[in-house]
## 1
Amino acid sequence: MIDPIHQFHLNKIFTIGHIGNQEIAFTNSSAYMLLAVVLIAVMMLAAGRALVPGRFQSVVELSYEFVANTIRTSAGSHGMTFFPLVFSLFMFIFVSNIVGIIPYTFTVSSHIIVTFALALLVFLTVIIYGFYKNGLKFFKLFVPSGIPAVILPLVVVIEIISFFSRPISHSVRLFANMLAGHVTLKVFASFVTMLGALGFVGKVGALLPLGLTVALTGLELMVAFLQAYVFTILTCIYLNDAIHPGH
Amino acid sequence: MARGLRLSSELIAGVLVGAVLGWGFDRLLSTSPFGFIVFFLLGFAAGVLNVVRSAGVAPDRSRQ
Amino acid sequence: MAESHGEAKGTASAHTEADGGHGFPPFSKETFPSQIVSLVIAFVALYVIVSRVALPKVGAVIDARQKAIDGDLADAQRLKDESEAAMKAYETELATARARAQAIGAETRDKLAASSDAERKALEDSLAAKLAAAEKSIATTRATAMSNVRGIASDAASAIVQQLTGKAPAAKTVEAAVDASLKGTA
């Protein structure tokens, strides 16, 4: 059976340098990250400036408006300060998810460390901006209003744990979705080849997993977008806490 | 599946942070295993809070 | 489900792979620093490109389009207002013209009616006068005719009586008899 995990392996292409004893390698993951960056940059910079947009320009402007509207509805107009950050996050995750669906490619967002680093970036942005903007009023975030004073300390502790669990759930959600989807796809696709090797009856039987693989690929396309969107909207909600912690 | 993964990741994240906090608490103050137990339970509560919030049952403060 | 499935496979394959990382690749810690470094490089590059070049460009295009659309809409609104004002002016002018025409018509009609009334009255008066004169002349003619008839009748009567009796009757008796017969016939 084909190893469904093989697609997540990192292969060293060359060594960039060392930090302490740790070797820093340029891997296939790095290559796909750069590919995503290059794709986004080319797409955004090659888009025309026509008053009436063509298809290509429409796609770029649609993504711009989409992210802008997401921020405005979730974090208010003040959230537009973070527009470049949120846009970069959305496009990076979305493009690397979509690229990952193409067979034989590598999915950057299927590695927990990548999604965790992105979630941590959002988390730290929220904390730093929250304290910079609101000072000590930022702590109001942990003190919900209308709670009896007796259980308030308990609630505050729970709220703090809930707050610190954000980057974990934020990153695990994206990572687990991509990983699970890709493993499922690979498993069903390997059924096709396995059954196909069993002669005529096997070939007929292989039609079922083949159809499932096609359907799952469609589903994965949707998940690729949906998870990028969920990551983005949660980013906006967390940023909203940094902007308006008193609510 | 996406919704299930989302909600379970919320719960696991809460429990995980609680457990890590408890473990750190124990290590610093050598109160093992009470800190771990207490924070594990608190983490579970926080996880449930996360799930309830993200499932949209309870009013979400950050969406108001 | 799929996740646990994958994990089981990952641990199984780790034993067979000699050079592979420790088990499941997404959790193999020795790749973390490389991944973080490349992610930081890639993401910082992306952020710089997006925030310095790409978004301002796209934003400017969208703004320009919005401005053009707003300008066109304002032009259209202005033209519409103008045409509406022209229409209104035309309509008021039409209304005043119609009112004036009606006034003139009414005036003329009144004048005509008045003059024709006066003419008719004059005509009627003259006709009535003529009628009265005619009636008068008829009456006098008749009266003279009647008196002539009376004279002739009394003359004839007295002549007949003279022929028959040979003696002329008294004029008074004849006249009374003529009057009586005239009254009877009349």
## 2
Amino acid sequence: MPGFMFSPEGQPIMRIKFLSVFAAVALLAACETAPDSSASAGGSGAVTGAQSSTASAAPVGPAPGTAEDFVVNVGDRVFFAFDKSDLTNESRTTLERQAFWMRKYPSLTMSIEGHADERGTREYNLALGERRATAVRDYLVSLGIDTSRLTTISYGKERPAVLGSNEEAWAQNRRGVTVVN
Amino acid sequence: MNTRAVPLPLVTPRPLLAPVSRRAFGRLTLGGGAALGLVGPALAELRIDITSGRVDPLPLAVVDFRGDGIEATRIGREVGGIIRANLERSGLFAPIDHAAFIQSDLQFDAIPRFDDWRKINAQALVHGRIIMLAGGQFRVEYRLWDVFAEQYMTGTALTAIQESMRRAAHIISDMIYKRITGEEGYFDTRIVYISERGPQNRREKRLAIMDQDGASHMFLTDGRTLVLTPRFSPTLQEITYLAYYAKKPRVYIFNLESAQQEVLGDFPGMTFAPRFSPDGNRVIMSLARDGITDLYTMDLRTHRVARLTDSSSIDTSPSYSPDGSQVAFNSDRGGAQQLYVMNADGSGVTRISFGNGRYATPVWSPRGDLIAFTKMTGGRFHIGVMRTDGSGERLLSEGYLVEAPSWAPNGRVLVYFKQDRTDSSGRGGTTRLHTIDLTGYNDRELVTPEDASDPAWSPLIR
């Protein structure tokens, strides 16, 4: 289990203790939406030792119950139609996997980020992102996740996951991302 | 109000104009003894009607102000240059190149040789002088002449500390603009905006402030925290904006004199889209909670919060009418983003936009006659204006992404930002400030050190 320390604001910050090479790659991919994870990925000397001994073994997946495990094995994001916050069947399936995983690790808390593509005005998109994050949160709560484990934050169009002014990029940027704290 | 200490570079407030002594010239007397009228519709008076659509820029000559000594000469040259640049950028004036000037010996107290100025087609002539005073101050005097009518139009004297040289030049520019157009000027103003750099997915955004001509530029935050959508208070002493300190998006107030920042209130959700009321006593903003965004006000003295809208929709981007009695905002309560107007207490909500597409960011003109907005239709963004009842829609500018119009205090010019497309490798996405006048013909980039967005034009400083 990851250890916790508390920031001055009282927000638990997860320390990542074990990182395989594979997980480190997955973590890099997740950095755009989880800057705190990368900031705390340095670890102590003891952690580094554990990391290299793991890495020298045969390739394995991320340690269960870690943010990387969640990103790689569960799926951290769902996507929305233009100017919409309705969950698709595919999104519901993803969130059901997320809820299953969260029940396995009941001490973990999550931050749900809502994002919009660039084709809206800034302030409206902030509200739209909040609406999307809320849609994700409410579905997870309906699946039995305690609402106190979930916070929401909207980034509007400020943090696209994919660069580009094209349909494919927009589709991937209209998203709700569940980030393990 | 909670106070949150945020480490920031200290901001030194810019020195304002030292006690300004303005001595209107009263009436000048020409050789023949005829008093030159300062007011009233003189025959064939030099005048630009800026309400009539496209106008040809008025050719005028602005002579570098004269001064005795190196320092006075330098200041005089700078003041002349600032005035020329202001008038040229307005699109209403075409300053004539110095090289064309025929009369080179024009003394401040003399009557110009109008023939010499008519020959180069200067409709108006501005000249002046700088007199250095003790204590780092100087006096600047100027005169504006109607060349073809051979009439003195206006002039004044200002005393300023040297650090306020640019402001003195802006104040004189405003006087010239007002005397010839009949409209208030907008040159003695500032613009607060968001300076941007870095890739779009890790964009660094900083609060920045500058004069309306881009001079006296200063960064107010350091870029570690995402900041958005700044707006001036009516006194220009404070800026309200959205910041993500501690990963909590909240409305903050930045005091320009103390460089202190305070979070505004303690709301159970994201507060954003803040604007001061015209009297400066309240901030109106959106609160997003549980998927619903409504409009609230907070009284800055009593901290009393009032809820203005109560719908299950997104109500945001509010804008007060100049008298504070009404609020325009955008809402998707009808299914898609449209513009609405309501009374300042939240009653009487009326939809005003009915065209094709989505409408956003309504901004009430300081004159009260128009509402500027962002419109999204056909995969393009537009900046437009309409009357406050929604009639008379006119689109002024369009692009892949243009957004966030903000009025100059005279209600004749808008500043907005324009963002280019980004390709899949992250190239492009250039984001710049532009100004455009109500005719839609005079679109200029307002040059900033980095990319720039979310501009807000200040009221006149004085």
